[in-house]
Design brief:
Layout: H1 2-5, H2 8-24, H3 29-36, H4 40-52, E1 56-57, E2 65-66, H5 68-91, H6 96-106, H7 112-127, H8 134-142, H9 146-153, E3 175-177, E4 186-192, H10 196-204, E5 212-219, E6 222-227, E7 230-235, H11 236-240, E8 242-245
Antiparallel strand pairs: 1-2, 3-8, 4-5, 4-8, 5-6, 6-7
Helix pairs in contact: 2-3, 2-4, 2-5, 3-4, 5-6, 8-9
Length: 248
């Protein structure tokens, strides 16, 4: 619901609070004002609106705390920022400041489908030994014709080792499902194998290719991890659908 009512400005405030808490563990009005380059009075108005939406807990002159729903909404915005930043910085070669500014401007307009397409792109590169972009286009053909996909994939120089395509031989031993990782392991996400609503939930939680997470352990059929220091609880089915690189 909040996804439909939040303005880009309120999403920016929510993201700023989230990032300040990652950096400093806490967020205060003066820190938000400094980061956003606005007056404290403007911050107070925005915080009041976010509190009304149930996304933060805030009383005047007190610390700001994200609610559970607020954390989900903040990570949803930040997930879009991360994937756009990676594209502009890592793929297109923009410098860090320019890539960040570009990502900030576009993250509010990126649709769920757009996010998913970007993620598919990075998933393909993360799984391709040669990091050959042609593999991404071969994968897109896979939904229409496996024969066409396999034929086009032959153009990729690393396809003899690739675990992406249906016709590829053996998966790499460096790739595991999150459920197979040791407790306490710090790992890098390679691919989200889930589809439908489960995939959407995981992506918007910030579980994206190249993101580093830590597996805490499995308790009562729930897999506990941290991302950016934040605790997240996954079902066994969700964790099984997260492909990771072995412990770093």
């Amino acid at each position: 619901m909040t996804q439909n009512v939040l303005t880009p400005a309120l999403e920016d405030y929510l993201e700023t609070i989230y990032l300040l808490q990652q950096k400093n563990k806490i967020a205060r009005v003066r820190e938000i004002a400094k980061d956003r380059q606005v007056k404290a009075s403007s911050v107070s108005l925005a915080l009041k609106r976010l509190s009304e939406f149930g996304l933060i807990r805030y009383e005047q002159r007190e610390l700001i705390e994200l609610t559970d729903e607020g954390k989900i909404a903040a990570r949803r915005v930040y997930a879009r920022h991360v994937v756009l930043f990676q594209f502009f910085h890592d793929i297109l070669g923009m410098d860090e400041a320019a890539a960040k500014e570009e990502a900030c401007g576009l993250e509010h307009a990126l649709s769920q489908e757009g996010l998913d397409r970007f993620v598919q792109f990075f998933e393909t590169l993360s799984m391709c030994p040669s990091k050959d972009i042609k593999c991404f286009f071969a994968q897109q053909d896979n939904d229409e014709s496996s024969d066409a996909s396999n034929e086009k994939a032959k153009k990729c120089t690393g396809c003899d080792k690739c675990v992406r395509a249906e016709g590829c031989p053996k998966p790499s031993t460096t790739h595991l499902r999150l459920t197979e990782a040791a407790n306490g392991a710090t790992v890098k996400i390679l691919k989200i194998m889930a589809r439908g609503q489960m995939r959407q939930k995981l992506l918007e939680t910030g579980l994206l290719p190249n993101v580093i997470i830590k597996k805490i352990g499995t308790i009562d059929d729930k897999v506990h991890i941290t991302i950016d220091g934040n605790p997240i609880e996954l079902t066994l089915a969700e964790a099984k659908n997260i492909l990771i690189q072995k412990e770093m």
